[in-house]
């Protein structure tokens, strides 16, 4: 869990220390602007998320926005930090009940995968995050700024998954591989959803995927 602790420490540094009224106002303003950025990213995509559009969405002046975030890169970087923190689940090992000594806990694994889809991935926040991830492929400055953060995020997710699950007949690396497959599938499903004629087809595909992957894992019987 060290990767998650590092990520959590960076995101919440100073969170328990007393803050002044001015600091509280600054934090509230930055949160409001970042939330507006998330809405713009989800609704319009990265390329069309302009400073002017964010200003309109947040209901602040351009000067106020640039006081807190001098450049778009500064704003996207902090927004990404907030989105990455939301997309890490710290309590995966007990998400569908306490750790169990029973090998017959396939339903619990299915519930965890479904929870990941419904509460983490199929959300406006994750769609906004995907826009930033896609932008990093071509925006080298943004990529350089976020690359270490993204590596920490991925390590934190892998650590949590291995702490909460074990492979039925292989090693811990297989747990990492299976959950990486699941995350890649869910991201693809978000994109595929744009082309689905029948929403029921979407749910059927997800259910079939879960049926294939869930039997390969079980809830970890002893804390790792």
Describe the structure.
Strands 1-2 form a two-stranded antiparallel ribbon. The protein starts with a helix and ends in a 5-residue tail after the last strand. It has helices at 2-11, 21-44, 51-58, 62-68, 72-86, 106-121, 124-135, 140-164, 172-192, 199-213; strands at 165-167, 217-219. The protein has ten helices and two strands, in the order ααααααααβααβ. Mean pLDDT is 85; it is low at 1-7, 9-14 and 93-103. α2 crosses α5 (72-86), α2 packs across α7 and α8 crosses α9. With 224 residues, it is mostly helical. It has one domain: Tetracycline Repressor, domain 2 (Orthogonal Bundle). 68% of the residues lie in helices and 3% in strands.
The CATH superfamily is identified as: Tetracycline Repressor, domain 2
The CATH topology assignment is Tetracycline Repressor, domain 2
Given the structure, what is the number of helices? Answer: 10
Spatial strand order of the main sheet: 1-2
Strand content: under 5%
* Euclidean distance between termini CA atoms: 9 Å
Shape: globular
- Radius of gyration equals 19 Å
The helix content, as a percent range, equals: 55-70%
Query: How many DSSP-defined strands?
Result: 2
Please describe the biggest sheet, giving its number of strands, its sense, and whether it closes into a barrel: 2 strands, antiparallel
């Amino acid at each position: 869990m060290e990767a998650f602790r590092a990520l959590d420490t960076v995101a919440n540094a100073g969170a328990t220390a007393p803050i002044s009224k001015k600091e509280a106002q600054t934090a509230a303003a930055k949160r409001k602007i970042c939330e507006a950025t998330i809405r713009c990213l989800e609704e319009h995509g990265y390329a069309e998320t302009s400073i002017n559009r964010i200003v309109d969405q947040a209901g602040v002046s351009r000067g106020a926005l640039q006081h807190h975030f001098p450049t778009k890169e500064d704003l996207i970087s902090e927004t990404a930090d907030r989105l990455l923190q939301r997309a890490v689940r710290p309590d995966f090992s007990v998400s569908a009940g306490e750790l169990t000594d029973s090998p017959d806990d396939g339903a619990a694994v299915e519930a965890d995968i479904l929870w990941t889809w419904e509460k983490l991935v199929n959300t406006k926040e994750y769609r906004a995050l995907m826009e930033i991830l896609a932008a990093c492929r071509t925006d080298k400055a943004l990529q350089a700024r976020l690359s270490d953060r993204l590596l920490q995020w991925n390590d934190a997710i892998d650590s949590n998954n291995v702490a909460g699950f074990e492979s039925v007949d292989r090693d811990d690396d297989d747990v990492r591989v299976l959950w990486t497959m699941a995350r890649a599938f869910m991201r693809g499903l978000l994109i595929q959803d744009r082309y689905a004629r029948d929403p029921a087809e979407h749910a059927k595909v997800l259910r079939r995927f879960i049926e294939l992957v869930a039997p390969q894992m079980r809830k970890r019987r002893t804390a790792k």
